[in-house]
Amino acid sequence: MENLKLNSFYDVIIVGSGPSGLGAAFKLAENSDKKILLIEKKKISSGGLRNDCKQNYTYPVGFPLEYWSKEEAHALLEEVKNHLNPKMEKRLNIDKYIQRAKKLDVNILTIDQAHVGTDKSSKLINDLIQKLRDLKVTVALQTEVKELNENKKEITLDNGFKIEFENIILGPGRADYDWMQTQMDRIGVTYSDNIVDIGIRVETKEENYPIVKDYYDPKILFPNKVRTFCTNSGCAHIVREKYKGYYSVNGHSLSKEKKANNLVNFAMLKTIRLTQPVVSGQQFGKILGQMVMQLSGGSVIMQRVGDFRLGQRSKKETFNEDLYDFKPTLSNAVAADLSLSMPAKILRDIWSALKKLDSIVPGVLHPSTILYYPEIKTYSNKPQFLNKNFMVKEGYYIVGDGAGTSRGITAAWSSGIRAANDILKNKK
């Protein structure tokens, strides 16, 4: 915990310094004199804002339709732009891809996008935090909220210090889904948790996926609820991220100032909506992740497309310098067999989508292309909200990707603004 003297009461406590927390903090600080405390358990915000920092500014990308109208989203996106100052990526010459996609019942969305890069995101976050401090927001980094009091408006920090509040906004993100579930149970908030995205991350040479030269992060929707997600090119790398009990893969790209490695990676995700008897998407994702850990000896797996098509597992010697003319950027992935560890229905739908993608952008299924597994996105603690501004109980709000109100930086920031707007309506 930082060496920071905290008060025993704040008008508003915001838990989490990701985009939803920042959106709420700026809205409140710029429009009221409320005493605001922003709490972050790490040294710096993590998640999408820290890793790659890719931003989408076109509805409905990132905005769940059950919570957002086009008009609401576009109005708040203008506020997001005022704080993030995005430099939009160019989008050129994609009509041929769109026409090919239509013939295959595939939809390519045209999205306004901006990209910061993992190497520059820390400066952006630190600048935003300093602006909040200049606005008299108390920012407590490396400070963890242990629990909410079930009987009164009070939190207990990890060191035992208790702080009371008038309003609290919870935006801890997807990674802390279990903590969020525990707190909702404590304060009597009903929620569901039955949706999860399961998929792979594809890595290949840019020449095999040339669409990225004209469209930085192509948003492509396939039948059977499969989609592309988080495309990285230029100086692009696959990373392994630690979750509770397993690893998931993800993709990063550095800013354009870094030397390009001429590789591209993107996720192919299938959305799974579970029903009885299995109703926890978080637990389902964890089980699949742990299965891969068992089969790989404690890591994630990878397989070359050439081997997958032949129905044989990849081996270390498969990754040679003959046909396979680039090295995997995730060196601690284990060469293995996707079909042994991914549920057949999920694998079948993703492979069908990849074959369609190869008809739209020929070359992506080159034999050297690598398929990494698993990539798991657990979005879906979905509280029962009392109003459109994400109130779950009088004075309590839950926002961001971890609450299912958004999927991505700009929509998460917008959800924080909506919660703040509800508090400002009652400004004293």
UniProtKB/TrEMBL annotation:
The record's annotation in Gene3D superfamilies points to: FAD/NAD(P)-binding domain (3.50.50.60)
Ranges where the FAD-dependent protein C-terminal domain occurs: 225-378
Q: Which top-rank group of organisms is this from?
A: Bacteria
The record, for InterPro entries, names: FAD-binding_protein (IPR028348), FAD-depend_C (IPR049516), FAD/NAD-bd_sf (IPR036188)
Question: Which protein are we looking at?
Answer: Pyridine nucleotide-disulfide oxidoreductase
Query: Could you tell me which species this protein originates from?
Result: Halarcobacter anaerophilus
